[in-house]
Amino acid sequence: MRVVKAIWGLLIGIKDALVLLFMILFFAGLYAILSARPAPTVTDGVLLADLNGVVEQPAEEDPFALAGSSGPRTLALRDVRAALLRAKDDARVKAVALDLDGFAAGQTVIADLGDTLAEVRRSGKPVLVYATAYGDDAYQLAAHASEVWVNPMGGVQLVGPGGNNLYFAGLLDKLGVTANVYRVGTYKSAVEPFTRSDMSPEARQNAQALADSLLESWRQDVSQARPQAAIDVTLRQPVELVRASGGSFSAAAQRARLVDKVGEKRAFEARLAELGGADTEARGGFKRIGLERYIAAEGSRTPAGPIGVVTVAGTIVDGRAPLGTAGGDSIAESIEKGVRGGKIRAIVVRIDSPGGSALASERIRQALLEARARNIPVVATMGNVAASGGYWVATAAQHIVAEPSTITGSIGVFGLLPSFQGSLDKLGIGADGVKTTPLSGEPDLLNGPSPEAGQLIQIGVENIYARFLSIVAEARNKTPQQVDAVGQGRVFTGGQARQLGLVDQFGGMEEAIAKAAELARLGEDERGVTFLERKKSWRSELANLLRDDEDSEAEQDPMAALRERPDALVAAAVREAQLLLAGPTIQARCLACAPSEPLAATPAARAGWWERLLALLS
CA-CA distance, 189 to 202, in Å (whole number)? Predict the structure, then answer.
């Protein structure tokens, strides 16, 4: 019987090995076939960008999650900007058109895109935008266009920064969950949702100042781009404006000179046919050049240069992580590899992160300091958010560049441990055991951390905060006491941070690259960049090849487009709770800073054979 079992086990093993080999060969062959497709061709027409979302570094996609999906994907800011700048001098591109239904991005991303659209307009090419309805983000970008269109059943609803957060103290109390909090500073409000039922006065003061500053930055950008728009009336007297327009939101938008044309999408497409040429065989009846097709056709023509660009996007986590999440080891190893190659003469680190693991932030900072030790200058440029651990990384730079609307600061550290003694008590469950030292079994999440464990965690928080202060003080030529006066978790806009000496200069990537070239003494013809980042996984590359790059033709419900989805709000709160509770005990993270894009869904606890096989192949 043992012999039979052994033979049967051997046969099963051979079968599994053959299946695994077949799957490897199948996907390798599929990838090779799709990769061998010729580069897409570009003809004359209108460059059409169906912008759903633009971020610094999109998260990698799963090819098997794309089954049955279509429509636009989240794009990288650098790809969109490069395509638009190339299009302004491309004779094949007669005009640029943006479909902004569903568009969302941070203020600094929108400002960068707006400046790029202004350059396209200065080249003499028209820029047109269309949306069923415009919110704050979409309208900030639309203001930079030469023609703004809106659906007759839509409109423009400007609401400004602000809103409510969820606070879980009451819920945790009902569940018997204790949030053990360890923090330094008056303003580190990241843990308040777990300890309070409302906003503390200190957090409210900081949040109000931040929101007011962001609104002013938004208003200035829109007013400069479209001076004729009655922005203040729209913001302060929306009800009166709509009533004066007979209850029509689109008429109110035109009355306030927020839009130029009110028309159905077919009328917009007819206008594009006038500019780019008619094509009765194409969707919409006009000659179109899809943005993603244009990026694929033109993006590979830019040669690598001596300025290395490092992107720190998303939550900073320990170890390695796919693109779209800032894995400390992944980013540090990419920097170290680029430096070892000997061709990098300056580094620009682009930060769009609310922070996360203090250890991972320090890992990235050390890699940048090692580059500086080799006489390679480092310049930091901030995107939408560069706060807490994101600012920790920025301290490695000799020069920090930020936009006025960047959210930064949040120099503070906190720790959070949930314990469930109350929950067990409600269920009639006891937890007991033995100890050999005061720290045996600690931190005890069943009975709560012991006094010794709690004191050690608090000491750790205070120690990391003191280190944070010293790092910032050394980088910004201040004393730790001066940094503490603007630290303790306070969050600032880029404009405020510059006044406080936390930022050196206003600007974006172009200004940062110019400064890096200046510090490295590079000539005008030596401004090319090389992106220092880990390669995409084969699964992500396969997803890129499989994705349908056709633009979506579906129009949104106008009223739905003018409100935030409640399920998205709840999902965002749950994600934040999961991240805090499942992340490292001590974090340098800004919870008040919105993430650059939604976090990936948490995988199911029990993976099927298909998921396990893919995990083996990854």
Answer: 9
Q: How many C-beta neighbours within 10 Å does residue 57 have?
A: 25
* Active-site residue, selected from the candidate residues 88, 125, 188, 515: 188
Structure tokens at 149: 């269109």
Give 210-249 pLDDT, tens digit per residue.
899 999 999 999 999 999 999 999 999 999 999 999 999 9
DSSP 104: B
pLDDT greater than 60 at residue 300: no
The b-or-e profile of 371-404 (16+ CB within 10 A means b, else e) is beeeebbbbbbbbbbbbbbbbbbbbbbebbbbbb
pLDDT(354) > 60: yes
Question: What does the alpha-carbon distance between residue 616 and residue 618 come to, in Å, rounded to a whole number?
Answer: 6
Find how far residue 483's CA is from the centre of its chain.
27
% of the chain surpassing 70 pLDDT: 78
Calculate helix-pair angle for 609-617, 538-546, nearest 10 degrees: 110
For residue range 52-70, list pLDDT tens digits in order: 888 888 876 655 554 445 5
DSSP 243: H
Catalytic residue among 357, 361, 388, 419: 388
pLDDT for 162 equals 86
Helix (H, G, I), strand (E, B) or coil at 6: helix
Contact 276, 94 (CB under 8 A): yes
261 is known as an active-site residue: no
For 117-130, letters b (16+ CB in 10 Å) and e give: beebbeeebbbbbb
- Preceding peptide of 443 cis, ω within 30°: yes
Does the annotation mark 540 as catalytic? no
What is the token pair recorded at 269? 């497409």
Token reading at 279: 């094509």
DSSP code, position 166: -
3-state class (DSSP) for residue 350: strand
Q: How confident is the model at residue 278, as a pLDDT?
A: 92
